[in-house]
Amino acid sequence: MSLQFLSPWFLLGLLGIALPILVHLLTRRQQKRIPFSAVYLLEQVQKRSIRRSQPNRLLLLLFRCLAIACLSLALASPIFSFGGPEEFLPSKPTANVILVDNSYSMAARSKDQTLYNQTVEFTAALLERLPANNTFSLVYASDPARVVQDWTGDAAQIVKLLKLSKPSFQTTSIGQGLTRAYDLLSTVKEENRRIFVLTDLDRNGWKEKELENLTEDPGSVPIKVVDFSAHRMEKNRALVEHVDLTQEFLTNNRILRVEARIANLQPDTAISQLRVALVVDGQTKSEDFIDVPPGGRVDKAFSFPYLGREAVQGYVEIQDDGQNVDNRRLFSFQPDRKIQVLIVDGDPRGVSHQNESFYVEKALNPFRATVTDIQPTVSTLAELTDRKLEQYSVVILCNVRSLPFDYERRLEEFVKRGGGLFISLGDQVDAKFYNEKMGILLPVTLQTLNQVDGKSEPFRLQGGENPHPVLRTFQGKSMQQMARVAFYALYSVAPRAERNFLVPMRYTNEYPALVESSYGRGKVVLFTSSVDRDWNQFPIQPTFLPWVQRWVKYIAQSLESLSEQDLKVGHPILLEDVGPYAYIVAPGGGILALEKAGDSDSQFRDTWTPGPYRLYQSTQSPEGERIEGETGTRVNQLPADARYIGTVTVNIDTAESVTETLTPDEVKKLLPGYAVTVLRDTDIRESSQVEGGVPLVGPFLFLLACVFLVEGWMLRRE
């Protein structure tokens, strides 16, 4: 039990008690009685019984002294507590770390503002009440946590930074924030140290592994956790979890298909008639209403024709709820990103439809239209040496007997740098050449040519769902159609020693139909049958066209990986083979230039805002301002020779969307041995408690008013 004062100098006012005492002593002197002649006549008048007024002077003196004492004590801001003096806002120098949860869950709505605004207002009021001899630092607890303000004695500077800030689009990491806080406290000399944690106590932000890695002595620094979750007016009901955009070429028009996955975050409550809308380039293309079961997910597909050449940017959104940040998922797509494919025909004939490459070429560009994103070029073996492989992203060898002298080395370098190689077999193939010369690219050797006559049962592909990225779209009827295709000839293969590869498809006799491997940054796919009608009927099936296109797009990763990167906030954008200078146009319009360092790939790390990041490359060095802490140079405009190379979309990490509030006991279990106090900000405001102490300014002022009332009543009564 103790009593302390925030403004002890006002206690000097207690000396003012001497004033009423001095007045009382001076008025106690006895006055001399002098008879007056006229008084004699009055004394002759009949006397009446009149009570003489004699107020209790000592009691009045006591009340006047008490009034002065109450006024002085009230001005001194006394704080009373049943604990020790350390439970107060001590008058001793104290180092305070203000750890603020600025994750996007703090953007949840309260009555008339967000939880984050409530936090800023509370922090400003808290810092106003702290003594002037305190020092402060500010740490943000979003992942990754960072120090915003190092030690300062100016509390107004902390308040200014908070009022200028907004919730981030990142997740929470209280463990990282506490680590930064302890690092700051290790540099101060003050004996009194403490940490204020201002958060909504979402469970996802209190990661056990991060909290277990805290190295500070648990009892050395008190941790004061202030919970703002009581201000959340509405639960976060649902979110747009994922958006996938694909392009279809089944007609002469380009059809873009957008598939969104909507998740219900309520485990016990279904959502009926939830509005889902597709917005493209600022215009609502389509909308619908869906029902989502409790804790379930629903896929909603939209499609629309698009013949433009510019990149498509848009989002899928659902109607508002308690957390609007995750109600929108962004996407971008570049329809005119053409994949240049070189098709090497190993068995050209006089009639075009009898050529080995005929069906593959038609599948890659079925209408010879400009809307396609794959541009095939057919070459014979005689023309192959004149082709520049760096102009292509995929090379397809169709029934090629053998390659020109030492040409396999050029293919090895092509694949190593990120190119894709697709090899289909046939009656012209020299197995010995592939086994001896293509050993670096092929993880298997060609063994036996297996053939069946017209009377025997043909080979067929295995059906069923396939998790491979290329094949997972072939389900139901499309997979059944593929499994009915008759194959009359195929090669069996055997693995090479200590080589890794995948077998995405097999025949019903368990022979591999496809063999996939990686070399360097590229991919190699071997199809053990042919891509014409000599060995099978696959090329005339409806599934052949999307099957070939998807495999080409899959192995052309060096082109598509840049545009199709769907990153989370804070993850770097990898700029592979971009140089010597890369320019990034951020969602806000700012332009940053990066210079490639040596042979390493550049990385753009400033992805803290969701949205599309447009990427360009140039040969001109940037002329602009280099910002401290940034890896690049800020410029006002793109150089004249800037060439557009793709768009990367950055979205939030939906892990922060699940709002489950921890209890005070759960927080203490996560921090065993630490001096943790958990209070709601509403409790602190209502009781006016600060650090466990109760301010007595109000009671003393109330007592002062009572003293004045009693004194006035006594004087009036007399």
From TrEMBL:
InterPro entries reported in the protein's UniProt record: Aerotolerance_reg_N, Class_I_gatase-like, Double_TM_dom, VWF_A, vWFA_dom_sf
Segments crossing the lipid bilayer: 6-26, 58-80, 696-715
Keyword list, A-Z: Membrane, Transmembrane, Transmembrane helix
SMART domains xref list: VWA
Domain VWFA: residue ranges: 93-259
NCBIfam families: two_anch (TIGR02226)
Classification via PANTHER family: BLL2463 PROTEIN
This protein's name: VWFA domain-containing protein
Organism the protein comes from: Nitrospina gracilis (strain 3/211)
